[in-house]
Design a protein that fits this description.
Helix 5 packs across helix 8 and helix 5 runs parallel beside helix 16. This protein has helices at 2-30, 52-57, 59-70, 75-88, 154-170, 186-189, 192-195, 200-209, 221-225, 242-255, 277-282, 285-290, 365-368, 387-393, 405-408, 411-419, 425-439, 490-502; strands at residues 36-37, 42-43, 96-99, 121-124, 133-136, 139-142, 145-147, 176-182, 216-217, 267-274, 292-298, 303-308, 317-319, 340-345, 352-357, 374-379, 398-404, 446-454, 472-476, 479-487, 509-514, 517-518. By secondary structure, it is α+β, with helices and mostly antiparallel strands.
């Protein structure tokens, strides 16, 4: 009798187990597949493409395993259950976890993917409001907001400033260079008892004090502080919001002698709730409960956007999206972290900007497009071209470095910014020669390019001037001299001279004028 009951129970268990397996199999094929996990903020594994080579080396079956794991029915719900279970065993008091590695920065990741980070964590016994405070994987979590702990120092400021000074030395003073140091959450939301005097804004100010004139510093920390009670930083992501970047844009316009677009002149788009990079790193339930919303301030002026495929080709590329429609998180801005992009707007002011940034600059770029004819965007972490060549070949007038304090205090970031300037020895020698030549002229000299001369007055019907739309005439003794251009920069007039040589004016030469008179 007992054996029969045991057999019945075993049979029942087997039936139930089989039914569950069949149900899971049916659901696997019936439940619609998704391409992106909002829970993990990443693309899910696609079904692998079959080939005999992949089958033979085992990668095809491995890819199928990953596909099944990523598309298991109700996967996000199961992941959420596991996260809640893990968090239930977490820290219960007010202790704070600190990352000892001073080179750790969320900027080592991009806005669409987070790799695993090995964190060396110790415990700090400072006690704060237990109802608001928590910690997870080295990040302070206070009042439902993830806060990175700043570990910068003056020695890193000196190193970073020397690199920006190298950029200043590389270019003519007519090219404006701006440094915008960006503070993160901790500057505004970290409890005062925990700041211990290590201030991002003080570090930024010290960095700015080391920059050679005429580098212009854009100080945004105090201005953003005035808007601290607004939604200027995300809770679950290490970036600022669109609104936070807008306030930085306003300050930049003040420094750069531009008129900022009023906030009411944007179109607002709400893309709903999302969980950002700090949640993806920690899976902390307090961050999940607080969450974030993506609110986009869309610009209204006309523009074109190109994702440039070749760092040496400044015009050829594929179309991009200013606000990538398939991304409902911070990664939507300028289509994410791309090495090289170009924006041409309907603005006509002869100003052309290069933005050298990491992901913090992504939300800032759309605002800047409203004030420049052309904006080139470089993500220094991935760009393999030469900033020097870009600036010299594209008549760049302005260069902006919007760099978070965390990044300007990280050696790998400083090295990358330095590495992309790429001035070779020949160009350095040429640049020195040009500067030396300009010093030989009196202060206030205006340079022009002489394209031809004649004993007789020429007009536009002359074959010598037929391809020139704008020129000036100067009578010198018994000759009429015909000139193009008008600049105080010798390097600029040298570029124009080379352009005229290419146009067929082989005898083009540079002339200097002081107070309207030709310098002999």
């Amino acid at each position: 009798m007992g054996a029969k009951r045991f057999n019945k129970a075993s049979s029942l268990h087997l039936i139930l187990f089989t039914a569950v397996l069949v149900l899971c199999a049916v659901l696997f094929f019936v439940v619609p597949k998704i391409n992106i996990s909002k829970m993990e903020n990443r693309k899910l594994t696609p079904f692998p493409v079959y080939s005999w080579q992949n089958l033979e080396n085992g990668s095809y079956l491995d890819s199928i395993d990953l596909y099944v794991a990523d598309h298991f029915p109700f996967r996000d719900r199961w992941v959420d259950v596991v996260d809640q279970y893990r968090n239930a065993g977490g820290i219960k008091d007010g202790e704070i976890a600190i990352i000892e590695n001073e080179n750790f920065s969320m900027e080592s990741t991009d806005t669409t993917k987070l790799d695993s980070v090995d964190l060396n964590i110790v415990q700090d016994s400072i006690k704060l409001d237990n109802a608001k405070l928590g910690s997870a994987k080295g990040l302070m979590i206070y009042d439902g907001m993830g806060i990175q702990i700043f570990g910068g120092s003056n020695k890193y400021s000196k190193l970073f400033a020397s690199v920006i000074n190298d950029y200043r030395s590389a270019f003519d003073s007519s090219i404006n260079i701006y440094y915008m140091g960006i503070p993160a959450h901790g500057e505004y939301f970290m409890p005062d008892d925990y700041k211990k005097g290590n201030s991002e804004s003080k570090n930024i100010t010290f960095t700015a004090s080391l920059l050679n004139p005429p580098i212009k510093s854009v100080f945004i920390a105090d201005y953003i502080k005035q808007h601290r009670d607004e939604y200027v930083f995300f809770n679950t992501d290490h970036h600022w919001t669109d609104l936070g970047s807008y306030y930085a844009y306003q300050k930049f316009c003040e420094v750069a002698a531009l008129k900022a677009t009023p906030i009411e002149n944007y179109d607002i788009e709400y893309r709903g709730r999302f969980l950002g990079s700090l949640y993806q790193l920690t899976r902390d339930q307090r961050l999940k409960e607080k969450g974030d919303s993506l609110i986009i301030h869309k610009i209204r002026n006309k523009y074109t956007m190109k994702v440039l495929d070749n760092p040496k080709n400044y015009t050829k590329g594929s179309a991009g999206q200013m606000y990538y429609k398939w991304n409902n998180s911070y990664g939507c801005y300028i289509s994410g972290d791309l090495p090289f992009e170009r924006f041409d707007s309907d603005v006509k002011n002869n100003r052309r900007l290069v933005v050298i940034k990491n992901s913090f600059g992504n939300a800032l770029v759309p605002h800047l497009v409203q004030n420049f004819e052309t904006v080139f965007v470089i993500d220094y972490r991935y760009f393999e071209g030469s900033v020097y060549d870009l600036v010299m070949n594209q008549n760049i007038t302005d260069i902006l470095f919007p760099i978070p304090a965390f990044s300007s205090n990280t050696v790998s970031h400083i090295q990358r910014i330095k590495s992309i300037l790429k001035i070779n020895d020949a160009k350095k020698s040429e640049q020195i020669a040009i500067k030396q030549t300009q010093k030989e002229y009196p202060k206030g000299t205006i340079f022009k390019v002489q394209i031809c001369s004649s004993k007789e007055h020429l007009d536009t019907t002359s074959y010598l001037l037929k391809d020139v739309t704008k020129y000036s005439e100067y009578k010198y003794h018994n000759y009429f001299i015909y000139l193009v251009g008008n600049t105080a920069s010798y390097s600029e007039v040298e570029k124009l001279r080379l352009q005229m040589v290419d146009a067929g004016y082989n005898d083009a030469l540079i002339r200097g004028f002081l107070n309207g008179e030709l310098i002999k």
